[in-house]
């Protein structure tokens, strides 16, 4: 099983959009998927509203054990979020997170959505991960946020030597705004080898998909179709990048 952790220490960058749509697209491609919502805001749980729930994040972390379940090919199952999931620097939280996520098995992919902080919970998730993907918003001071993401990755890699950094994914990108276009160029110049060659635009189609708990390729509007084509292109890149690292 390949575990991909979606992480950034800044909120509002589209982590849940990316995590939920990756899970849906993997399912459509025939892969079995476990989606794990570690964020107390439970946004991934809402975005995967019709998905079969196989566990609760808080119960899993408190026991340090993964729940027992099976996943069919092409199915996405959910370990739902809990508002009381701890966000702290406690070593016990880190250890229980590692133990619980290490125990997950039986699927092709595990997609983990995380809270907007590099807490013990998030570090624990990264210590079990095969890949880290970081959506970034192209606002002012975005470069400072990128440096925090990369610092966290380097720290994790010292212990989890096998983890790979998939890249910085421009998210909620508004191409109409000159400031965001300029920031994208600045990020590309500073981190050319780390920037994902796709961007997730700020589209109503994604909002509709999350509100209804469905994949964006099922949103029938023009914005939904544009978003589906855009995310589909990113997904093709994503699968190729994963397979390249095998």
From TrEMBL:
Residues 1-162 form the AAA domain. It comes from the Bacteria. Pfam families: AAA_31. InterPro entries: AAA_dom, DNA_Partitioning_ATPase, P-loop_NTPase. PANTHER family: COBYRINIC ACID AC-DIAMIDE SYNTHASE (PTHR13696:SF99), P-LOOP CONTAINING NUCLEOSIDE TRIPHOSPHATE HYDROLASE (PTHR13696). This is ParA family protein.
């Amino acid at each position: 099983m390949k575990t991909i952790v979606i992480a950034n220490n800044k909120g509002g960058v589209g982590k849940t959009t990316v995590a939920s749509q990756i899970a849906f697209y993997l399912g459509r491609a025939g892969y079995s998927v476990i989606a794990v919502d570690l964020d107390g805001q439970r946004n991934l749980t809402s975005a995967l509203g019709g998905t079969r729930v196989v566990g609760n994040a808080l119960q899993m972390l408190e026991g340090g054990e993964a729940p027992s379940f099976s996943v069919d090919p092409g199915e996405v199952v959910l370990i739902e979020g809990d508002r009381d999931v701890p966000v702290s620097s406690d070593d016990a939280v880190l250890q229980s997170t590692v133990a619980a996520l290490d125990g997950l098995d039986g699927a092709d992919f595990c997609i983990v959505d995380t809270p907007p902080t590099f807490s013990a919970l998030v570090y624990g998730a990264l210590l079990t991960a095969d890949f880290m993907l970081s959506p970034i918003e192209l606002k002012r001071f975005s470069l400072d946020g990128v440096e925090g993401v990369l610092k966290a990755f380097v720290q994790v890699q010292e212990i989890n030597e096998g983890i790979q950094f998939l890249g910085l994914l421009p998210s909620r990108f508004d191409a109409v705004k000159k400031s965001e276009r300029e920031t994208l160029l600045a990020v590309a110049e500073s981190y050319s080898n780390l920037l994902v060659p796709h961007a997730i635009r700020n589209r109503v189609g994604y909002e509709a998909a999350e509100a209804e708990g469905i994949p964006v390729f099922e949103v029938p509007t023009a914005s939904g179709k544009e978003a589906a084509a855009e995310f589909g292109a990113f997904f093709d890149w994503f699968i190729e990048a994963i397979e390249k690292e095998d």
